[in-house]
Amino acid sequence: MYVSLSRLRVDASEAPRLVEAFRRRAHLVDDADGFVDLEVWQSDRDAGEIVMVSRWRDRDAFRAYMRSEEHRVSHDRIPADLDAAIRLDRLEHLHTYDVVAR
């Protein structure tokens, strides 16, 4: 399992627009080889902190998607003013782990 966490920061006033953009996402990633799932979290203490968590079969699958046309198309759908308001606070990768219990 490969997990990528993108910690995004926006003004709290822009957070509802960003959350709605994720809700209306194109879902192109859903059919990507090795994609497992995607969740978007919002802090209950800081509305401007949004964390996008994606899980993948392995790092190679994640990298392939990040270089894909589908990824570009998904990101091109973000309105320019909202895109400009988003700051990547931190990108974390929980490299490859084996799921050993559920």
Summed up, what is this model?
This protein has helices spanning 15-23, 59-66, 69-76, 80-85; strands at 2-9, 35-42, 49-56, 87-96. It has 102 residues and is an alpha+beta fold.
What does this structure look like?
This protein is α+β, with helices and mostly antiparallel strands. It has a single domain (2-96), classed as 2-Layer Sandwich (Alpha-Beta Plaits). Helix content is 30%, strand content 33%. The chain has a four-stranded antiparallel sheet.
Topology at a glance:
Blueprint (H helix, E strand, L loop, with lengths): L1 E8 L5 H9 L11 E8 L6 E8 L2 H8 L2 H8 L3 H6 L1 E10 L6
Antiparallel strand pairs: 1-3, 1-4, 2-3
Number of strands: 4
Specify the helix fraction band: 25-40%
Structural class: alpha+beta
Regarding quaternary structure, what we see is single chain
Number of domains: 1
- The CATH architecture category equals 2-Layer Sandwich
Q: What is the terminal-to-terminal distance?
A: 13 Å
Query: Which fold does the CATH topology refer to?
Result: Alpha-Beta Plaits
Please write the string of helix (H) and strand (E) elements: EHEEHHHE
- Which sequence of strands runs across the widest sheet? 2-3-1-4
Q: Describe the biggest sheet? A: 4 strands, antiparallel
Kindly provide the radius of gyration, computed on alpha-carbon positions and rounded to a whole number of angstroms: 14 Å
Mean model confidence by pLDDT: 92
Low-confidence stretches: none
In terms of DSSP E residues, the strand content is 25-35%
